[in-house]
Automatic annotation (TrEMBL), chain A:
It comes from Microvirga brassicacearum. The lineage of its organism: Bacteria, Pseudomonadati, Pseudomonadota, Alphaproteobacteria, Hyphomicrobiales. Residues 1-29 form the signal peptide. CDD domains: PBP2_PnhD_1 (cd13571). Keywords: Signal. It comes from the Bacteria. This is Phosphonate ABC transporter substrate-binding protein. Coiled coil: none annotated. Pfam families: Phosphonate-bd (PF12974).
């Protein structure tokens, strides 16, 4: 399935970026509408959350906001690079991969830090102690452009000079961290790579599903999936409005309601070096693939 | 023929039960068949809706072999169709491998589709029920254009349907059993009620022979159904006739007894009268020539003989007709005495008697029984034989039985008389002419455990052979 090589992905991104410069961006700006992209990094299924987020952003930025969701990270990233989106909540991996062309707007703060972990999960009753025990599994990944849902596991295998395709008997992309949990809980997959933040939130929202799984391994702390914009628009007034809206979310009543639903503390402005650990993993995977 | 003996009060309810059972089986079979058809149709419709709903969404992911999306679709569909209870949904590729199942642990991805799922190609949803396993499997092929790219299979839990069928069956059985029981009970009560007059009639008809026939009481006739009132009245008329007949026969028997008593009395009078003339003559002789010793001696001898004759006659009569039964043994002379008793009749009709008594001096047989039997037979023979004829008598002991043979030269026994003596039925002949005597003979012989045989005699006449078993000393009183 959509497992592209990194060089190829970059090539696609580059083409998208060129297209963006070519004109779409001006069209988006002209409409006066703030287009905000959302990846399946968090619980996109909750329409109430989307409504509240949109109304908060409209109120805070003073302009109409359109929330745009796509099935894959790649689609959102392409839209962002092509300028069809003003900003998007993407993952650390596409941010790092497209770093010079993307700039940070804000990074969510979870449990006091702009950091999270990736989890390796398996069926609850399996007696496994680490990644090495999962050899030959049917493994569920979230998205080929997800840090926690693919890159972390791929990098761990690359350190062993392995690839997911060789190590696992079968890999399934579910295009959603919640889907990874569903796949493992149902038995469709024997193990999965999942976003630790989503997993912990689901522990509260869907304890029945989580109870059927167990954590095999946790990664080191990594930069939380950030809200990014294209580098060209980093200093636009629109981007500044959005940044202050995000950072001020914790100070606003409606904003706090949104944060409560997301189980986040707020948004902070961080240096791109926050994502160096992810960049290192990208390098390892690239090295192994190369 | 045995079945005929089952009382009507049982037979009719039994027929009701059999009939109801047949109706119940037929109706139950129809109801259950229709229910099953309706359920199958309903299940088929539901399966069609379910599979047709899934099919369009599944085609594209199946072509792409997108395991997750296929799983996602069937997993969500299961949640949506919770009421239908598809226990499992399996999507397979065209070459029969599982792409994804709603229960991946049971049927993992890329495993071969198990044979429990329908193997027949089905462009429209087709359902097959497995009643024993309580499930049904449905199949629908997924086609893109003209090509079949895979198939979607669903397993349905039909145990609620089977349970419903079972509960309907139980309800049917319960209702029918209750209905059958109620109808059988009603039939039994009705028949019993209907049969009550018949039972009344039967109990009156079956009354023991010893008790007289009783007419049915008026109160019963009044409460009986109309059809039976006539029957009861007819029975009462018949009972009345029987009672009249019984009274008549008692009356006749009495007359007969009196007549025979009269005959006996006249015979006795004759027997006593005969020597009386001689005795008076002898007394006259004594009066006139009493002083002559030779005459006196001769005359007194004559008187002695005459008085002894009278004494014998009186004693024999007493012995024969004693009402209390004796415990004496039979003397040879007891039989010879009988000759004396028939003497008047013999003389009156001028008969010849051939008498042979070869019985032992003493036999353990009731003398009164033997004497009454033989006297009755002898008198009957005398009566049957025309004037100047001959009767014969012979007594002997044979095989520890006393055998007596009485013969006459009369016209032979009438059929009715023979019937009285040796016929199938033990009943008194009503009518004139010694019938009662013969009936007594039969009864006495039967009581004594003896036999009686009647032979015709050539050229004319009858021989009657009677045998009475000789008992021991103790048995005698009982037999008598």
């Amino acid at each position: 399935m959509c497992r592209l090589g990194h060089s190829r992905r970059e090539a696609v991104s580059g083409i998208m970026a060129l297209l963006a410069v070519a004109g779409s961006r001006s069209a988006a700006a002209a409409s006066g509408e703030l287009k905000f992209g959302l990846t399946p990094v968090f619980l996109t299924s909750d329409f109430e959350l989307l409504d509240r987020l949109r109304s908060y952003l409209e109120h805070a930025t003073g302009s109409p906001v359109r929330l745009i969701t796509r099935r894959t990270y790649q689609e959102i990233t392409a839209l962002l690079l092509s300028g069809q989106l003003d900003a998007a909540w993407i993952c650390g991996f596409p941010f790092v991969a497209n770093h010079p062309r993307l700039a940070l707007v804000g990074v969510p703060v979870w449990r006091g830090k702009p950091l999270y972990r990736s989890y390796l999960i398996a069926e609850r009753d399996r007696r496994v102690s680490g990644l090495d025990d999962l050899k030959g599994d049917t493994h569920a990944f979230s998205d080929p452009d997800s840090n926690s849902g693919w890159l972390v596991t791929a990098a761990a295998l690359a350190r062993r000079n392995l690839t997911p395709e060789r190590f696992f008997s079968q890999t399934i992309f579910t295009y959603g961290h919640r889907n990874v949990v569903r796949a493992v809980a149902s038995g469709l997959a024997m193990s999965g790579s999942v976003d630790g933040y989503v997993y912990e939130v689901m522990r509260e929202t869907e304890p029945g599903l989580i109870a059927k799984t167990s954590i095999v391994e946790q990664s080191e702390l990594l930069g939380f999936p950030p809200v990014a914009c294209s580098a060209a628009a980093a200093d636009d007034a629109r981007t500044k409005q959005l940044r202050s809206a995000l950072v001020g979310m914790a100070e606003d009543k409606n904003g706090r309601a949104v944060l409560r639903m997301l189980r986040l503390d707020g948004f902070s402005i961080e240096d791109p070096s926050l994502f160096d650990a992810i960049a290192a993993e990208v390098a390892i995977v690239k090295g192994a693939a190369g | 023929m045995r079945a005929v003996r089952i009382p009507l009060a049982i037979r009719i309810p039994a027929v009701v039960i059999v009939f109801m059972a047949a109706v119940a089986v037929f109706i139950s079979e129809r109801v259950l068949t229709r229910l099953q058809e309706a359920q199958t149709r309903h299940l088929g419709d539901l399966a069609a809706v379910y599979l047709d709903g899934l099919a369009p969404a599944l085609v594209a992911p199946v072509v792409r072999e997108d395991v997750w999306e296929v799983f996602d679709i069937v997993d969500r569909a299961r949640q949506v169709h919770a009421g239908l209870k598809p226990t499992e949904t399996v999507v397979a590729t065209a070459d029969g491998r599982v792409l994804a199942s709603s229960n991946p642990r049971e049927h993992p991805t890329w495993s071969l589709l198990p044979s429990s799922f329908s193997a027949e190609r089905a462009t429209a949803p087709a359902i097959v029920s497995h009643d024993t396993e309580g499930e049904a499997v449905a199949r629908r092929d997924l086609s893109s254009g003209d090509r079949i790219v895979g198939s979607v299979h669903a397993t349905f839990d039909i145990s609620p349907l089977l349970a419903e069928r079972r509960s309907v069956l139980i309800t049917l059985i319960g209702t029918n059993a209750a209905l059958t029981f109620a109808l059988a009970l009603t039939a039994w009560l009705t028949v019993r009620r209907m049969m009550r007059p018949v039972r009344v009639l039967a109990s009156h008809l079956n009354a023991s022979p010893e008790t007289p026939v009783e007419p049915i009481a008026d109160s019963l006739i009044k409460t009986a159904p109309r059809e039976f009132r006539g029957l009861f009245a007819a029975f009462n008329r018949m009972a009345e006739a029987v009672r009249d007949r019984e009274a008549l026969s008692r009356h006749l028997a009495e007359e007969e007894r009196l007549a025979s008593l009269g005959r006996l009395a006249s015979g006795m009078a004759h027997e006593i009268n005969n020597p009386l003339g001689g005795l008076f003559n002898a007394i006259d002789t004594l009066k006139e020539h009493g002083e002559r010793s030779d005459v006196r001696r001769r005359t007194i001898d004559l008187i002695d003989r005459g008085l002894k004759g009278i004494r014998d006659v009186v004693r024999t009569t007493l012995v024969t007709y004693r009402t209390d039964r004796d415990v004496r043994s039979l003397q040879r002379a007891d039989i010879d005495d009988l000759k004396l008793l028939i003497e008047p009749e013999v003389r009156r009709k001028n008969l010849t008697v051939r008498w042979r008594n070869e019985s032992h001096d003493e036999l353990w047989v009731s003398p009164s029984v033997v004497r009454q039997v033989l006297l009755n037979l002898l008198l009957n023979a005398c009566q049957a034989t025309p004037t100047g004829g001959e009767i014969s008598f012979e007594a002997l002991v044979e095989n520890s039985s006393l055998v007596a043979v009485v013969g006459d030269t009369g016209p032979g026994l009438s059929d009715s008389a023979r019937d009285v003596l040796v016929g199938q039925h033990d009943h008194a002949v009503v009518g004139s002419g010694g019938g009662l005597g013969l009936w007594m003979v039969r009864r006495l012989i039967k009581e004594g455990g003896g036999t009686i045989v009647v032979y015709p005699r050539s050229p004319t006449g009858t021989t009657i052979r009677v045998a009475l078993p000789i008992g021991d000393e103790e048995g005698l009183a009982h037999v008598a």
